[in-house]
Each structure stands twice: as C-alpha cells, then as structure tokens.
Amino acid sequence: MWSLKVFFLLFTALALSSEATIAAQPRTGSEKIAFVANLKGNWDIFLVDEDGGNLVQLTDTSYDENEPRWSADRKRIVYSASDGRIYIIDVGTKEFHELPAADDGGKMTSPSFSPDGKKVVYVHFKPEQADDTELAILDLDRKVNTKFLDQFGPLSFPSWSPDDRYIVYATGHCSTDCGRIIQELWIASTKGRYARQLLMTNSHCMQPVWSPEGTKIAFASDKGGNFDIWSLSLENWDLKQLTKDTHLDTSPAWSPDGHNVAFVSARTGKSMIWTIDLKTEKLKMLSPFKDENIECRDVAW
C-alpha cells in the first residue's frame, strides 16, 4: 500500500504537470493592501500602500463588511457582509452591487474570484441546519448559483487557484468529541471530479490562500500550539512555519510578487496588519491610521 507521502507526491505531480504554473506579477509599487477596520463602530473596507501610507476608505455602510478578495486584474474586490450577502465593489469608482442571493436564501460568506473574474466561489450556509455548509459557485454573467461541493463537516474559506484548476478550502473533522477543533485543508478540482485532503496536522487550519504562481498555500494554524502563519509547498510538500508568537497570527495574504506575506496579529494587544519578508524573515507593522489605535482584520494583498 502506498504511504501518504507517496500518494501526496503523486497527486501533486498530477496537479502541476499538465500546465505550467503562473508567474508572479512584477512589482509596480502601487499594489494596495485591502483590509477591514472598525473606525466608526462598524467594519468597513480600506486600502493602504504596503508601507502603511495613502489610506483610502472604500465602504461606509451601516453593516459590517468582511473578507475582501481582489480580482486578478485588481480592479474589483468581492466581499461578504453581516447581512449574509456578497458584494462586488469597483475600486476606482467605489460603486458596489449585491450579487444574486442563493436560491434558498441561505447566508453567503467567504467569496473568492475565479482567475478570469467571471465566477465567485463562496460558502453557503444551509437554512435551518445550524453550521452545515457547502461550497457554491456564482456565474456572474448568467447570475446563476450552483452547488459545487458538499461533504461531511462544515466547509470554509475557499480560495481559487491562479491556474483556474483547483479550489483549496478548510473542513472541520472534529470538535466536541475531540476536545478541540480539528480542521484540515482540502483541495478540489474545479471540474468537480475529485477532492483530496492536503494535510493531516491534527490541528485547526484555516484561511488558506494561494501564492501568485500557484505553487504554495499560506494558511493560519494552531499546529504549533498557537495560531501562527504557515506555508505549504505543493512542489515538495515542505511545511514551513512563517511566524511564531504567543499572540494570534491569522489572515495571511501573499504580496503580488510572492516575496512577502501580510497577516493580522494581536501581538501588540490590538489586531494590526503586519508583513513578513520571506527571504529575510523581517517583520514590519503597518500603521494605516497613524497614532489612532484602530483594530484591523481580513487582509487581502
């Protein structure tokens, strides 16, 4: 019988061999970091330069915005809101519109654009079934919602691969019976033919995001005893811990060139945006609100 390592290596070879991976985009100096902050009593979406300057507020509504994600052309951001719906905002004009609701009216969260920007994958909460969720895809041109994936346990945090072939997500394996939450990363073909578990960490893994070239996945996990940022290489199955702190590190986001990762950390006592240079391991905290102690979350770069 094949070992798990051999199985995973063969699966990865199949996943990466038939198409060349997408090259990371060159830096232009204008790549904004999107995030959510509570400035006026509710959570709105803001943009900031990678050095923490040139703050721009995108939304100003009476409800909370969550989980912004860029389109590949960086002209739009898709996000969820506390009303259980998904929206798209034009970054240039700040005009936004609500996407068609699920057919059964269930709550919609955690959206992610397809590489061509024509579809959005999201988490659909089944009405009147507690935390039972499935993954669904919305065709933006046809305005049609279809179920993509349903399996035992709650599904969360879908992220579409840059080559359009896979969706990585997290699914819960155990909670009360285990005395803790065990949630692992899975990967599914966008063609709907198969899904496979990526890791077996016996920990709580969440918020997976693809690197720009599609060969790595960053995610948050308490595998080391506390929530930190980790990365998994799909080329050699190298699992690397990127941050290590006694406070929570969550919400990873790759820079467009893949050389840095932004994340949210409570290491100063407040949830703030930090970046790490993957080559030098140098950490930097951003201060988009200057001296104001404003909490931030849900980073997208």
* Strand arrangement, major sheet: 3-2-1-24
Query: Mean pLDDT score, rounded?
Result: 89
Detail the poorly predicted runs.
1-29
Secondary structure tally: strands: 24
Distance between the termini: 42 Å
User: What is the H/E string?
Assistant: HEEEEEEEEEEEEEEEEEEEEEEEE
Biggest sheet descriptor: 4 strands, antiparallel
- How much is the radius of gyration in Å? 18 Å
| Inertia-based shape | globular
Count of helical regions: 1
Write the topology of this structure.
Elements: H1 4-17, E1 33-38, E2 43-48, E3 56-57, E4 65-70, E5 76-81, E6 86-90, E7 96-98, E8 108-113, E9 119-125, E10 133-139, E11 144-149, E12 155-160, E13 166-174, E14 182-189, E15 195-197, E16 205-210, E17 216-221, E18 228-233, E19 239-241, E20 249-254, E21 260-265, E22 272-277, E23 283-285, E24 296-300
Antiparallel strand pairs: 1-2, 1-24, 2-3, 4-5, 5-6, 6-7, 8-9, 9-10, 10-11, 12-13, 13-14, 14-15, 16-17, 17-18, 18-19, 20-21, 21-22, 22-23
